[in-house]
């Protein structure tokens, strides 16, 4: 079981992960825009697919942040 000190850092850690993931998504979008003529449709589809998975991941992480905030505020609700 995770100790309270480690859990206390979770919201900050999760926010860092979200920020990094969104940065990667934005860089990928910029890359596709800048190199649309140079990359294959398959490469473009792979990048866009990865960005969709990044969006899903961010959504899950945001939910996890909400859960952590509830825990830290003493709310046992879901």
TrEMBL record:
<keyword id="KW-0749">Sporulation</keyword>
<comment type="similarity">
    <text>Belongs to the Tlp family.</text>
</comment>
<feature type="compositionally biased region" description="Basic and acidic residues">
    <location>
        <begin position="37"/>
        <end position="71"/>
    </location>
</feature>
<dbReference type="Pfam" id="PF19824">
    <property type="entry name" value="Tlp"/>
</dbReference>
<feature type="region of interest" description="Disordered">
    <location>
        <begin position="37"/>
        <end position="78"/>
    </location>
</feature>
<protein>
    <recommendedName>
        <fullName>Small, acid-soluble spore protein Tlp</fullName>
    </recommendedName>
</protein>
<dbReference type="GO" id="GO:0030436">
    <property type="term" value="P:asexual sporulation"/>
</dbReference>
<dbReference type="InterPro" id="IPR017524">
    <property type="entry name" value="SASP_thioredoxin-like"/>
</dbReference>
<dbReference type="GO" id="GO:0030435">
    <property type="term" value="P:sporulation resulting in formation of a cellular spore"/>
</dbReference>
């Amino acid at each position: 079981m995770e100790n309270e000190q480690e859990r206390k850092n979770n919201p900050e850690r999760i926010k860092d992960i979200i920020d990094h993931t969104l940065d990667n998504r934005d860089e990928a979008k910029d890359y596709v825009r800048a190199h649309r003529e140079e990359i294959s449709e398959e490469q473009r589809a792979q990048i866009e697919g990865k960005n969709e998975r990044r969006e899903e991941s961010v959504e899950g992480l945001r939910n996890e942040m909400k859960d952590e905030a509830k825990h830290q505020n003493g709310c046992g609700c879901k």
